[in-house]
Structure formats: C-alpha cells, structure tokens
C-alpha cells in the first residue's frame, strides 16, 4: 500500500488501513542495543531524588548496583518503601538493626523485582536525568540519520597474510583468560573477571548477594571471592553444586576440601575487616558445613544448576 494522507471524505473507509500502514524508515525503532547508561537513566527516572538526579547522571555509566550504592544517599527515602520480596537480603545480611542496609540491598539488585521498590505518589522525572535521556535520544536520532556506508574490504593475498595462531581464525578476537594467578595480600577490593565459565554459578554470585561488581570476582587479602555484596563489607563464596546427590564418600572428600578453602577465605576476610558468607544450594550442604565449622555463616540460596 502506498503512503498517502487519509482525506476527510474517505476517513471512515480508510481509517483502519491508514492506522496499520508500515512506518517510514525514519520512524523505525532503533535496532541497535540500548546502552547501559541509557538503561540506568530510564530505571532511575522511576524514583524521586533530592538532588535533581545529578548523582545518577554522574554515575550512570557504571553497573546499576554501583550506581545505586553511590547515589542511595540522594534517594528521597521518605517517598520510597522497600520490600525484600525474594528474602535474599534478609539472609544475606542478618542484622535486624540495619534496615537501611536491607533497603540498599533491595534497591541495588541488578534485576528489577516487581513489588520490591514502591514509590509513594507520582514521580516527576528529575531534571538532570531527563536532560540525560533527551541527550541520548538526540544522539541516537543523529546516528540513525547518518548514511550507512557499506564498504567491502579488499581481500589481502594469502601470501601476505600473517600466520594465525593454531585454533583461531582470521579476525577472531579472543577475550583474555580470567585472572587466576595469586595476588599479593591487599585489603582493597580488586575486581577481576569471574574465574570460570559456569554460567549458573556466576549468575547466582551476581544476583543473590547482590554483587557490587556484576560479572566479576574480587581479590581481598590475597584470596579470591565470588562477590562483594552491595552496600556492606561482606564477601561471598558461592557453591551451586547439588551436594545432596553425591555418594557419601564423595560428600566427605568435598567437605574436607571446602573446609580448608573456606577457613582460609574467612580468615582473610576478617583480617581485612569484612564479614564472610557462604551461599549453598541445598540445606544438606549447609548442615554438612556447619557440622564441621559451627560458627561459619552459611545461607541456602536455592540457586539451581
């Protein structure tokens, strides 16, 4: 159907057809991935801020948990209620005298949990946040308007090409391997990429505490931890294997190995002034650890593989 204006005499006949016409190329939604900064600005626009959103705009390029932690002081908490609907924050930081800690934990969760953050009354988007959103949309519109140059690179003769490493292909860009070498002891948290490619384990480490550095482990005191919890000095070790499905002999060997590991990690955390929590997937795993280390803080995350 050609694009034409719906004139008044034909309005009743052509209304539905005009309403369903294909949009012009200039009206198509931008197919490019949404930037994390823009996503953070949109998320923050739902909440009331006491500084007109200046802190949010300054921190918007960070991951949401980091933004939330750094700007929590500017949130108008008189107009916001926090509900720990997943119960993660309550078990992650068992201090009933610290409601602000639980509130920050709920607010900083990487994912938006329905009903966790409730705003009282209507929210007018903070001025600085609105300016940031408008600027992003203007830039996106200009990018869409630019002509797309489609050039085909000239093929280089095979004889002139540099030899490729074995197992790679031309043009492949491989990420650096995760850092596994021991670091000198330091009490400053040093984020490094998650050590393994175990996606369920890494997702649990990022979302359950929740992790201040999503996608990252952290070195503290010479030991590597799966997560540093948002808003508090709590380091986490996450275990997601199905311990209760192992044979008795395997369970005994596994617990012996974990006790040695967790004791070292807890000592390093305490030396640097951090609390230490172990997250396990099953109650049987928790019971086995507590039987050998009664003072160990262990919580059941329920994370599945």
From TrEMBL:
<dbReference type="Pfam" id="PF19829">
    <property type="entry name" value="DUF6310"/>
</dbReference>
<feature type="transmembrane region" description="Helical">
    <location>
        <begin position="101"/>
        <end position="129"/>
    </location>
</feature>
<keyword id="KW-0732">Signal</keyword>
<feature type="compositionally biased region" description="Pro residues">
    <location>
        <begin position="174"/>
        <end position="188"/>
    </location>
</feature>
<keyword id="KW-0472">Membrane</keyword>
<feature type="compositionally biased region" description="Basic and acidic residues">
    <location>
        <begin position="194"/>
        <end position="206"/>
    </location>
</feature>
<protein>
    <recommendedName>
        <fullName>DUF6310 domain-containing protein</fullName>
    </recommendedName>
</protein>
<keyword id="KW-0812">Transmembrane</keyword>
<keyword id="KW-1133">Transmembrane helix</keyword>
<feature type="signal peptide">
    <location>
        <begin position="1"/>
        <end position="21"/>
    </location>
</feature>
<feature type="domain" description="DUF6310">
    <location>
        <begin position="182"/>
        <end position="303"/>
    </location>
</feature>
<dbReference type="InterPro" id="IPR046277">
    <property type="entry name" value="DUF6310"/>
</dbReference>
<feature type="region of interest" description="Disordered">
    <location>
        <begin position="140"/>
        <end position="208"/>
    </location>
</feature>
């Amino acid at each position: 159907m050609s694009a034409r204006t719906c004139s008044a005499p034909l309005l009743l006949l052509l209304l539905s057809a005009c309403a369903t016409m294909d949009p012009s190329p200039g009206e198509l939604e931008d197919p490019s991935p949404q930037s994390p900064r823009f996503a953070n600005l949109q998320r923050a626009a739902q909440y009331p801020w006491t500084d007109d959103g200046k802190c949010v705009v300054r921190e918007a390029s960070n991951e949401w948990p980091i933004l939330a932690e750094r700007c929590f002081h500017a949130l108008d908490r008189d107009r916001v209620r926090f509900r720990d609907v997943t119960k993660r924050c309550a078990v992650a930081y068992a201090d009933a005298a610290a409601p602000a800690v639980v509130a920050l934990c709920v607010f900083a969760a990487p994912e938006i949990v329905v009903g966790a953050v409730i705003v009282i009354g209507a929210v007018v988007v903070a001025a600085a946040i609105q300016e940031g959103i408008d600027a992003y949309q203007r830039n996106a519109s200009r990018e869409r308007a630019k002509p797309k140059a489609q050039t085909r690179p000239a093929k280089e003769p095979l004889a002139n090409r540099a030899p490729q490493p074995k197992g790679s292909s031309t043009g492949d860009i491989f990420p650096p391997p995760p850092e596994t070498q021991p670091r000198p002891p330091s009490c400053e948290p040093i984020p490094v990429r998650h050590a393994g490619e175990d996606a369920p384990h890494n997702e649990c480490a990022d979302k359950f505490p929740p992790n201040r550095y999503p996608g990252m482990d952290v070195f503290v005191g010479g030991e590597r931890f799966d997560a540093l919890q948002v808003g508090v000095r709590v380091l986490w070790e996450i275990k997601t294997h199905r311990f209760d499905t192992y044979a008795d002999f395997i369970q005994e060997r596994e617990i012996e190995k974990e006790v040695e590991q967790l004791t070292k990690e807890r000592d390093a955390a305490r030396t640097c002034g951090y609390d230490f929590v172990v997250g396990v997937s099953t109650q049987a795993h928790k019971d086995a650890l507590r039987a050998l280390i009664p003072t160990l803080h262990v919580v059941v995350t329920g994370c599945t593989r």
